[in-house]
Specification:
alpha/beta, Rossmann fold, 7-stranded parallel beta sheet, 7-stranded mixed beta sheet, 14 helices
Length: about 350
């Protein structure tokens, strides 16, 4: 099998960023997507092969995947796009990677673990910002406190998001919050709980969100109780809590059309200057039944820069034959120190208590 990979969704914001970074690193992915003109233009710009592929065309996907070792799937919204691509990878014996952060996808791919192992295929979603650094942080905290029963993760991203991320957020507006209790993903009200977190510059107000780590950190660590938080100014936390009332109408078909129209007015994504100046901060805490505690912090480059770099780091591992069949998380496949291989990522252990 040729040692190359397909970058599907190559003409989106994150796809283009990843494609250009891949070329800078000497990789030569096959660029693919459904818009023929956009794929051809990017392929010509980068001197790469381009393919026009529709996810509904199972035969076309099967034929194209016979020419690659892995797929890096960057086409959202992932709730709609991952099922046909993951299924095609399983049929073709091709390793599946993506940049989603959606819990439902992880749980669905966990259910296909035995099928993937039998096919010798690795299913590794979330090879970007959500969740590579946070998954590695979770696994590191488990390593520091093996007896941990509770895990809290918090994020403070800076520098703006892409239109594609906003569309995914619009899809989720009518969904409840989530936590993991006793190993079970459990619904809670939107904006259910708030707490102050010190990311290194003093306390910052954070509120619970249903982050992908509720799926991945559990698989990476076995810790049964997990909460995830994002930094949100106290004055704006009402917006998250208002989803308890407004989420239902905004989740209807007309509501979704309105939100997508509004998202379409946004810039496609952060500029190069915004990404260069941006960064993300993470904090995690593990505790056990005896009251022992371990906490650590991380700092990373801008989320989109890190997504492209982390995805390509894992692609290179896969192309080199470092694969682990079945459903995997970044840390279960490559360990808690994987994120530290990325330029600009640092980790700090806080004093144990």
């Amino acid at each position: 099998m040729p040692e190359t990979f397909m970058l599907y969704g190559a003409t989106g914001y994150t796809g283009r960023l990843t494609a250009r970074m891949a070329v800078q690193q000497g990789l030569r992915p096959v660029l693919a997507g459904r818009n023929a003109a956009k794929v051809a233009a990017l392929a010509q710009e980068l001197g790469l092969e381009g393919r026009t592929l529709a996810l509904e065309d199972a035969a076309g996907l099967d034929a194209a995947l016979r020419e690659v070792t892995a797929v890096l799937h960057c086409a959202g919204p992932f709730s709609q796009t991952y099922p046909p691509m993951a299924a095609a990878c399983l049929r073709a014996g091709v390793h599946y990677l993506d940049i989603t952060g959606e819990i439902a996808e992880h749980e669905a791919l966990v259910a296909r673990d035995a099928e993937a192992r039998a096919a010798g295929v690795m299913l590794l979603p979330s090879v970007g910002f959500d969740v590579v650094p946070s998954d590695c942080l979770a696994a590191h905290l488990k390593r520091r406190l093996p007896s941990a029963t509770h895990l809290t993760l918090a994020f403070s991203p800076a520098g703006g998001s892409s239109r594609g991320t906003a569309i995914t957020g619009a899809e989720m507006v009518n969904r409840a919050g989530l936590v993991r209790r006793d190993g079970i993903i459990t619904p809670v009200p939107a904006g259910w709980k708030s707490r102050d977190v010190d990311f290194g510059g003093g306390p910052v107000s954070c509120v619970t969100i249903p982050w992908g780590d509720l799926a991945t950190a559990y698989r990476s660590t076995g810790i049964p109780n997990i909460e995830t938080y994002v930094a949100v100014p106290r004055a704006a936390q009402w917006a998250l809590k208002s989803a308890r009332v407004l989420g239902r109408p905004l989740g209807t078909r007309p509501g979704q059309r309105l939100l997508r129209a509004l998202v379409g007015l946004l810039p496609e994504g952060p500029t190069d200057a915004q990404r260069a100046a941006g960064y993300s901060l993470l904090w995690g805490e593990a505790t056990d039944a005896a009251g022992n505690r371990a906490a650590s912090r991380m700092r990373t480059p801008h989320a989109y820069t890190l997504t492209a770099a982390a995805a390509l780091l894992i692609v290179r591992r896969v192309l080199a034959g470092d694969i682990h069949p079945g459903y995997q998380t970044p840390a279960s496949a490559y360990g808690p120190d994987l994120a530290l291989e990325l330029e600009g990522v640092t980790r700090e252990d806080l004093p144990a208590t």
